[in-house]
From TrEMBL:
<dbReference type="InterPro" id="IPR038765">
    <property type="entry name" value="Papain-like_cys_pep_sf"/>
</dbReference>
<feature type="domain" description="Transglutaminase-like">
    <location>
        <begin position="10"/>
        <end position="70"/>
    </location>
</feature>
<protein>
    <recommendedName>
        <fullName>Transglutaminase-like domain-containing protein</fullName>
    </recommendedName>
</protein>
<dbReference type="Pfam" id="PF01841">
    <property type="entry name" value="Transglut_core"/>
</dbReference>
<dbReference type="InterPro" id="IPR002931">
    <property type="entry name" value="Transglutaminase-like"/>
</dbReference>
């Protein structure tokens, strides 16, 4: 199945990558009024050329992570999504450095209030497509 399978495909096949499961979870949350967004690390530490995706939900005035494809014990580990998992990436703003940072998708340029710094969310599975995003690496420090 393609990494960007839509929610109907994920349900039909009963499986998906972390990206597909995260997209499904974000859609499910949104369908019942829970603000949710996809979060992506273009280069993840555990895979030679892999990425990782998960979901953040907005609750009590802040975004917090929930997993769609994490090991059971990972969600109780506060450092599970720590940037060191992204191969101890350089904090460079250069083209290569951005692929090791953590990005959240957003419908609105600049986030919910339009006050956050815009960054195109790099999609490893669809390099020709750019999605509005914000760099949230610092919130995982």
């Amino acid at each position: 199945m393609h990494a960007t399978a839509d929610d109907v495909q994920v349900i039909s096949y009963g499986q998906a990558s972390c990206s597909g499961l995260s997209i499904l979870l974000a859609c499910a949350c949104r369908s019942v009024g829970i603000p949710a967004r996809l979060v992506v690390v273009p280069r993840w530490a555990d895979a030679p050329h892999g990425n990782h995706a998960w979901v953040e939900v907005y609750d009590s005035g802040r975004w917090g992570f929930i997993g769609a494809a994490e090991p059971a014990d990972a969600l109780s580990a506060p450092n599970w999504f720590h940037p060191s998992r992204t191969r101890d990436a350089p904090r460079s703003a250069g083209a290569r450095g951005k692929h090791f940072r953590i990005f959240a998708s957003t419908w609105r340029r600049g986030g919910l209030a339009g006050l956050e710094k815009h960054a195109d969310l790099p999609l490893p599975w669809e390099t020709s497509t750019q999605i509005n995003g914000i760099d949230v690496t610092d919130s995982y420090q």
